[in-house]
Design brief:
The chain is mostly beta strands. Helices cover 3% and strands 53% of the residues. The chain has one helix at residues 3-15, and strands spanning 35-46, 49-57, 67-73, 80-81, 97-105, 108-118, 129-138, 145-146, 166-174, 177-187, 190-198, 204-212, 220-229, 232-240, 256-263, 268-271, 275-276, 284-290, 296-301, 316-317, 324-329, 332-337, 345-360, 366-367, 369-380, 383-389, 395-401, 406-413, 421-425, 432-440, 443-448, 453-458, 465-485. Strands 23, 24, 25, 26, 27, 28, 29, 30, 31, 32 and 33 form an eleven-stranded antiparallel sheet that branches. It has a five-stranded mixed sheet with strand order 4-3-2-1-20, with no helix packed on it. A hairpin with a 5-residue loop joins strand 26 (383-389) and strand 27 (395-401). The longest helix is centred in the N-terminal third of the chain and has 13 residues, at 3-15. The two termini are 28 Å apart. Residues 38-39, 55, 66, 98-99, 114, 167-168, 222-223, 284-285 line the site of beta-D-fructofuranose.
Length: 489
């Protein structure tokens, strides 16, 4: 093991937090043993296990020189910490092993990641960065060797990319070729994604621009990902600098998708409109992977850049979303929790055909880690809310306003939670609102109407939540299932 990597692993082992004792540390989401994390990286299946890597700065609770942290799982629910996989120890990645992806091939696992060199640190007057794509290979899925020939992709001889932003490669195989897309800029105000092809993952040929922005679609497209979902080619990406439009694009940066068709001969990608993958305040840089049983599964960073991270006082910052299965419905990508999440269900409180007029609570619907699945009939109500309230006078509220067809997640009065309120338009069929809500210590993820829309947010209550239902007319809870969820730690 090289020294920087060794140092990181020794540090993590020595300083690993006692996760169960921390107020806001998730009990069933993947997060780091100590320190800062951001993007998920390198999601793949190798040797009978799911592998998930992440952007990692073990030595502090803020972003710093990026390593790759690593967890594995046999069910996408129980995650086991593995050794830190990559450290920024080469000339070409000396300021960070930035985001990237993984692929299993010929019994080995290949990580394709961005080597980041920050030129401003040495010569502030120079252009700001050099980013190249680099390969690391593993036989056992735990120990990785960076190859001699790194970097394997550079912007040299590419005249259709602007500036030095060139990062976050996503590799996949199509027929007998490997393809990679990399995030880049077309000019100062337009993001784009570049396509490369290769027979061996070492020698790459630029194919061209696979997609680029039009109008209000941001200046830099980070973390492009790509997979076939229900017969359509889906590109997921995270544009920086999209301006707010009404209820949409209110976060600092966005994550969304195109649905379309890639022509592998020409490298052109015909696609529909840009839409968001998650309408909550905290979701970024998602990655997608194909599972051996044919699903496409996405995990995102359940956070957002440049806000307060109250968990820093506990010695950690950042967590992953739960894994979400993607499907196409009409022209949209919908996402639902992977079915494996049911493994965690423990105590069950079930109510059915109950009228909610004004406020209603059910004994036992309280806790810090739970799932609430419900169907509400709003035929005789204009508004229906689920309030997550605490004894410390905090609340996170989900409410549906039928008159305008909008669901709101309001976290503006929830203790130390950075104040935010997000809304999403969603129509009801037969007046029925369906919700699958996951709460885990400092997060809420709400899947609305079978994942047609999703809202995720970090919340930082001082006390456990009590579930309170409220309706302005009469809402009938056709069914509401509350499950406490077991801890994976
Ligand atoms: C996205 C991102 C990536 C980059 C990584 C650095 O959140 O900015 O573009 O590779 O984070 O940590």
């Amino acid at each position: 093991m090289n020294t920087m990597l060794q140092k990181a692993n020794v540090y993590v082992e020595k300083n690993a937090l006692n996760r169960k004792e921390l107020k806001w540390y998730p009990s069933y989401h993947s997060a780091a043993p100590v320190g800062w994390i951001n993007d998920p990286n390198g999601m793949c299946c190798f040797d009978g296990k799911y592998h998930l890597f992440y952007q990692y700065h073990p030595y502090g609770v803020t972003w710093g020189p990026m390593h790759w942290g690593h967890v594995t799982s046999t069910d996408m629910v129980n995650w086991k910490d593995e050794a830190v996989a990559l450290a920024p120890d080469m000339e070409y990645d000396k300021n960070g092993c930035f985001s990237g992806s993984a692929i299993a091939h010929d019994g080995k696992m290949y990580l394709l990641y961005t080597g980041h060199v920050d030129l401003k640190q040495e010569k502030p007057e120079d252009k700001d960065r050099i980013e190249t794509q680099c390969l690391a290979v593993s036989e056992d899925g735990i120990n990785f060797e960076k190859i001699e020939k790194n970097p394997v992709m550079t912007l040299e001889n590419i005249d259709y990319a602007f500036g030095g932003h060139f990062r976050d490669p996503k590799v996949w195989k199509h027929e007998d070729m490997f393809y990679t897309i990399v995030g880049s800029q077309k000019d100062e105000v337009t993001g784009q994604v570049l396509l490369f092809s290769s027979k061996d993952m070492v020698n790459w040929q630029p194919v061209g621009v696979m997609a680029s922005g039009e109008g209000n679609q941001g200046f830099m497209w980070e973390c492009p990902n790509f997979a076939e979902v229900d017969g359509k080619d889906v590109m997921v990406f995270s544009p920086q600098g999209v301006n707010p439009e009404g209820r949409r694009f209110l976060n600092k940066h966005q994550s969304g998708f195109f649905v379309g068709k890639l022509n592998y001969e020409t490298g052109k990608y015909e696609h529909g409109k840009f839409d968001m993958l998650d309408y909550g305040s905290d979701f970024y840089a998602p990655q997608i992977m194909n599972t051996p049983d044919g699903r496409v599964v996405m995990i995102g960073w359940l956070d957002m850049w440049d806000r307060d991270y109250p968990e820093q006082e506990e010695g950690w910052a950042g967590m992953m979303t739960i894994p979400r299965e993607l499907h196409i419905k009409g022209d949209k990508v919908v996402s639902t929790p992977v079915k494996e999440m049911e493994i965690l269900r423990n105590e069950h409180i079930e109510v059915s055909s109950v009228e909610v007029k004004a406020e209603k609570q059910f004994a036992g619907m309280t806790g810090t880690a739970f799932e609430l699945v419900l169907e509400a009939d709003m035929a005789n109500a204009d508004e229906f809310s689920i309030k997550l309230e605490t004894l410390a006078n905090e609340e996170a509220v989900l409410s549906y306003d039928k008159k305008i067809g909008v669901l709101t997640m309001d976290c503006s009065n929830c203790g130390t939670t950075p104040k935010n309120k997000r809304e999403v338009e969603i129509a009801l069929t037969d007046n029925k609102l369906k919700l699958d809500i996951f709460v885990d210590k400092s997060s809420v993820e709400a899947f609305i109407n079978d994942g047609e829309r999703v809202m995720s947010a970090r919340v930082y209550p001082m006390k456990p939540f009590n579930v309170v239902f409220e309706s302005d007319g009469t809402t009938v809870l056709n069914n509401a299932d509350f499950y406490t969820l077991n801890s994976i730690y």
